Amino acid sequence: ANLNEQIPTHFQALNKLSIPNRQAYLPVLLASTSIKAEVLTELSPLLTNKAFDLLTFKNNLMRPILSGETEILIEDKFIGSYISPRFAEDEDVSIPLGINDEVKISKQTDQEDISEKKNKIFKLKVSYVIENFSNKKQKIKLYEKTPYLRSNEIELKNIHLSENGKYEEENNSMTWVNKIEANKQLIFSYSYDVIYPTKYKLSRSQR
Fold this sequence. Notes:
Blueprint (H helix, E strand, L loop, with lengths): L37 E6 L7 E8 L9 E7 L2 E8 L7 E8 L3 E13 L3 E14 L5 E8 L9 E7 L3 E4 L4 E8 L4 E13 L10
Parallel strand pairs: 1-8
Antiparallel strand pairs: 1-2, 2-5, 3-4, 6-7, 7-12, 8-11, 9-12, 10-11
């Protein structure tokens, strides 16, 4: 096995192994380790109204993790196993766990059109109500997008995000990370103005 392309590493079995023939192979446990991870529930309402769980961790073992069977335990309960790929040192890892039916999201939208002499202003405010119907606290990450502006004559102004919101202009993304207590709800909101010349027609296909 190779931990990386420059350092060949060899392993020797502690006991004798019986392999039936040259064409056969026998899996051998070379090493095992445990890494603390957390469950993150992601929501991307532009794509789906479903919530999805991810198991996330950072490889802080000071070495790569070789490809092999990975067992997943949450609160000491065995969830399942799969053959994981190789993880590099310091790599941030996300393992999909599936749909989380205990987290629900609903959307409320307020919008207004204002006409001026040369420009029009489209004002938008969106609120997401995220409800945790489980009996445990859950960590939530919400993704949203601001509009893609196809002309320099169109401006995005007065961008406001609710608490813990982060806006990244270079990729038009908005994200929130927060924890929701058991059987509680949180509200994530944002607002912005789109200012554009009267000669343009604003597309609202995603809203």
